[in-house]
Amino acid sequence: MLAVVYAFEKFRSYLIMNKSIVYTDHSPLKYLFAKKDAKARLLRWILLLQEFDFKVTDTRGAENYAADHLSRLENPYENVFDPKEINEAFPLETLNKIAHNDPSTPWYADLVNYHAQNFIIK
């Protein structure tokens, strides 16, 4: 349910005037708008979804082959978490390239300089 709400919210500009079909294995979603008494969060989601023209098609998990397959894959990185520290020290060579307008300077260096100090090196 939350995934559907998030998708419609995220792609609002693309979906607002278009007819959409939502394929889901969450069958209660079909009866969402007929529900009389609902909690505040659910009411907010209903109000958001009412702006869109969409139809909910229920596909059981066994019929939805792609989602069924992806849900059964093992995650090799499940228990591997390697926190990396943020390196806040910049090498002097990198700073000199930006200061001396080196052609290999990244394209965004002008934007960074402008937003940081309101100047562009030419």
UniProtKB/TrEMBL annotation:
Transmembrane stretches, start-end: none
Keyword Nucleotidyltransferase among UniProt keywords: yes
Keywords, alphabetical: Endonuclease, Hydrolase, Nuclease, Nucleotidyltransferase, RNA-directed DNA polymerase, Transferase
Ranges for domain Reverse transcriptase RNase H-like: 1-52
InterPro entries: DNA/RNA_pol_sf, Retrovirus_Pol_polyprotein, RT_RNaseH
A Pfam match: RT_RNaseH
Naturally occurring in which organism (per UniProt): Tanacetum cinerariifolium (Dalmatian daisy)
CDD domains, alphabetized: RNase_HI_RT_Ty3
A molecular function GO annotation: hydrolase activity
Protein's name according to its UniProt entry: Reverse transcriptase domain-containing protein
Nucleotidyltransferase as UniProt keyword: yes
